[in-house]
From TrEMBL:
UniProt protein name: Transcriptional regulator, MarR family
Organism taxonomic ancestry: Archaea, Methanobacteriati, Methanobacteriota, Stenosarchaea group, Methanomicrobia
SMART domains, alphabetized: HTH_MARR
Record domain HTH marR-type: where: 11-152
GO molecular function annotation: DNA binding; DNA-binding transcription factor activity
Signal peptide feature range: none
Species: Methanoregula boonei (strain DSM 21154 / JCM 14090 / 6A8)
InterPro entries documented for this protein: ArsR-like_HTH (IPR011991), HTH_MarR-typ (IPR000835), Metal_resp_HTH_trans_reg (IPR052067), WH-like_DNA-bd_sf (IPR036388), WH_DNA-bd_sf (IPR036390)
Record flagged with keyword Transport: no
One Pfam family it belongs to: MarR
Keywords: DNA-binding, Transcription, Transcription regulation
Keyword RNA-binding belongs to the record: no
CDD domains attached to this UniProt entry: HTH_ARSR (cd00090)
Length: 165
């Protein structure tokens, strides 16, 4: 990717890309802020369902690793874990032989939510997956490069806090 600075206001194509990017991020933010039911009759916010999924994909994960995986602080994960334990979605337990380390796993209700979320994404991303499969390896690598750059850019603007990566 070029490191040459661009003036988005002078280049209509880049300006259009930024406008589309802003529309996409605004739609994602709206979508992420609305709680959804994933098969248990209870509404879950994005942070809750993504935490359930991370734990479901990594049974026995600890707070530190979960915070790094989700890009949030250990304190935020601890609060969220307590809330989700109250909703009977996860259980917290101590690592055998280590009373300090807390591990997390899904309850049967949490497993049901995890499966419901997978089914939701299977339907939601089916069309996107079909389109991505049409791309060449070079095009996919380019997308990873662009997404990586965007992630780095966003990371550089976030406050430097414990547990974010």
């Amino acid at each position: 990717m070029s490191t040459k600075p661009h003036d988005a206001h002078r280049d209509p194509q880049i300006s259009k890309l930024f406008q589309q990017w802003n529309r996409i991020t605004n739609k994602i933010l709206r979508s992420e802020s609305a709680p959804q039911d994933f098969g248990t009759g209870g509404l879950l916010f994005s942070s809750e369902i993504h935490t359930v999924c991370a734990i479901g994909n990594n049974p026995g994960i600890n707070i530190t690793d979960l915070s790094a995986q989700l890009g949030v602080t250990k304190g935020a994960i601890s609060k969220l874990a307590k809330k989700m334990e109250e909703k009977d979605l996860i259980e917290r337990y101590h690592k055998p032989g280590n009373d300090k380390e807390i591990l997390l796993s899904l309850t049967p209700k949490g497993k049901k939510v995890h499966i419901g979320h997978r089914e939701y994404h299977a339907k939601e991303f089916e069309r996107l997956s079909v389109e991505i499969e049409k791309l060449t390896e070079e095009q996919v690598r380019f997308l990873f490069e662009v997404f990586g750059f965007i992630e780095e850019m966003i990371d550089s603007t976030l406050p430097n806090r414990e547990g974010t990566s």
